[in-house]
């Protein structure tokens, strides 16, 4: 291996793992172990609750700020998604705190009595060893959508998290913003 005898993988995924661990120290240790196994991207998925969001932000802060005693791979962590910045999550600064989460419809396993689609909220975090994500084409910084887009007759409402660490409510119209 380039850095040590440690085995690394391009993609490491851990879904609903942090919420199973009882303490901050155990979660931090698990995230550090997962990060050591990562050569490109680490994907963490948790329930879309306040607690799940806070666990993801703990993991994010731990990997961005903590210096390891034994360096397995010298490339630092950077946030790939959904955050367009590495500052404190602006949703944690709101009162009341609202989690950064996303809804997904899914078809459950075809068990007796379960045929309808269901919706689940989840939160995720993708960290990368590849450096921070770049701004969009032409250097435009639109931010990342953090809520479903609300379509109205002549405009749409977008709620975004900006690269400056602020939340913004944008009203987009064809007249002001072109097609």
UniProtKB/TrEMBL annotation:
UniProt keyword annotations, A-Z: Iron, Iron-sulfur, Metal-binding, Mitochondrion, Transit peptide
Domain of life: Eukaryota
Transmembrane segments: none
Entry-linked InterPro entries: Mt_RNA_Methyltransferase, Ribosomal_Rsm22-like
Subcellular compartments: Mitochondrion
Keyword Manganese (UniProt): no
Pfam families linked to this entry: Rsm22 (PF09243)
Function: Mitochondrial ribosome (mitoribosome) assembly factor. Binds at the interface of the head and body domains of the mitochondrial small ribosomal subunit (mt-SSU), occluding the mRNA channel and preventing compaction of the head domain towards the body. Probable inactive methyltransferase: retains the characteristic folding and ability to bind S-adenosyl-L-methionine, but it probably lost its methyltransferase activity.
Identification of the protein by name: Methyltransferase like 17
Record organism: Characodon lateralis
